Amino acid sequence: MVNLVLITGGAGFIGSHLAERLIAEGHSVIALDNLSTGSRTNVQHLLNHPRFELIVGDISNEAQLAALIKQADVVFHLAAAVGVKLIVDKPLTSMTTNIRGTEMVLEQASKWNKRILLASTSEVYGKNTKTPFSEDDDLVFGNTKKTRWSYACSKAIDEFLAIAHHRESGLPVTIARYFNTVGARQSDQYGMVLPTFVNQAIKGEPITVHGDGSQRRTFTHILDTVDATYRLAMDESAAGDVFNIGGSIEISMMELAKLVRSKVNSDSQIKTIPYKEAFNNKGFEDMQRRVPDCNKIDQQIGYSPRHSLDDIIDNVIDYYQPVSQTAAMA
Ligand SMILES: NC(=O)c1ccc[n+]([C@@H]2O[C@H](COP(=O)([O-])OP(=O)(O)OC[C@H]3O[C@@H](n4cnc5c(N)ncnc54)[C@H](O)[C@@H]3O)[C@@H](O)[C@H]2O)c1
Asked: Would the pTM of this model clear 0.70, i.e. be above it?
């Protein structure tokens, strides 16, 4: 029986929604978060809950991390430097968090033999042009001067470390590769496309599409991601394995910009921006198409995302619209 769950990055976007689900399932939750991209506001509604505790701290504090992992029954390791813009702007701290931080989390989980779910990313497929991506496909990265690949590489190293712990000490770790997950509480500050488009449309600012907008992606509603994450972590037979968690409906970034604009009823222009300009010449290249094959997770836990693309976009609009309207009136 799982009683106490530790979520690193528990005051972040996915972490805060996961905390809600875990509490609803009857577990007690400790969220460890340094509030770098997460916030107290994300978990404000949980702070007085008797089975929730927010600990503001960094995963690099080994003594604190060890004590928390020792007392937890299950660990969700979500803390990371996230978002392409953040990684391109602060590559060193991002890599330190994602590599050294995860190494420490895995070491402690291994020491106490704790069930752990590791959050990875579709970015690890890199420049592989195959579609859709299945878990056994090759990871293809660009050269080391293109900073954006440091995120993918750091997460790939995390996966290697996790699998090595599983093989050498039997650590019950499961790896979830998230494809764009979106919903309420996702920040627009670190280059996440949907909250950025929604905010630009609400404010009547130009909607900035990188490149020519023909890049195609899928999106997953936060509640579908949380449901899959929770059930995967609780399934002991998933240990030692890697699973895609993503959506099925593909859309180009130009189509997405137009859809957001019409849903917000905005008269924003749609402006294409060359990658060089968008990322200050810091070495950026993008993938044309990124679509998950979710058969493996479907066979493991019965995965079928319940929310449509309309639901997903409406959820983000509902989250941002009242705030922006209030700000506009102030
Ligand atoms: N949202 C997505 O679409 C997506 C896609 C792929 C992978 N992921 C992965 O999912 C996880 C959660 O991402 P998210 O979208 O919720 O982003 P997020 O930025 O909201 O969450 C990350 C959380 O980790 C915290 N954090 C960062 N460094 C820390 C440190 N050193 N110590 C303690 N806390 C720290 C941040 O404050 C934040 O609350 C990440 O591992 C990310 O790589 C997310």
From this structure: yes
User: Sign of the CA dihedral 220, 225, 228, 232?
Assistant: positive
Q: In Å, how far are 2, 182, 289 from 165, measured between CA atoms? A: 22, 31, 32
Which residues constitute the domain of residue 278? 193-217+250-289+306-322
**Which residues are known catalytic residues?**
151
CA 83, CA 96: separation in Å to the nearest integer? 15
pLDDT digits (tens, 9 = 90+) for 44-79: 999 999 999 999 999 999 999 999 999 999 999 999
Is the domain of 75 the same as that of 211?
no
Q: Are residues 206 and 224 in the same domain?
A: no
The binding-site residues of ligand 1, defined as CB within 6 angstroms of any ligand atom, are 8-9, 11-15, 32-38, 58-60, 78-82, 97, 101, 119, 121, 178, 180-181
Q: In this structure, is residue 26 part of a structural domain? A: yes
pLDDT at 188: 80
Give the position, in ligand 1's atom list, of the atom nearest the Cα of 155: 43
In a domain, 294, yes or no: no
Nearest CA to ligand 1 atom 34: 33
Residues 281 and 153 in one domain: no
Is residue 284's pLDDT more than 70?
no
Residue 158 and residue 25 share a domain: yes
Task: Compute, in angstroms, the gap from residue 81 CA to the centroid of ligand 1.
Answer: 6
Task: Please indicate, yes or no, whether residues 266 and 285 belong to a single structural domain of this protein.
Answer: yes
The reply to whether 161 falls in a domain is yes
Q: Which of 7, 13, 55, 192 is the best mutation target for the ligand 1 pocket, counting ligand atoms within 8 Å of the beta carbon and taking the most?
A: 13
Edge-to-edge strand list for the sheet holding 28-33: 52-56, 28-33, 4-8, 74-77, 115-121, 173-178, 242-245
**Is the pLDDT assigned to residue 154 strictly greater than 50?**
yes
User: Is the distance from CB of 152 to CB of 285 less than 8 angstroms?
Assistant: no
pLDDT score at 217: 93
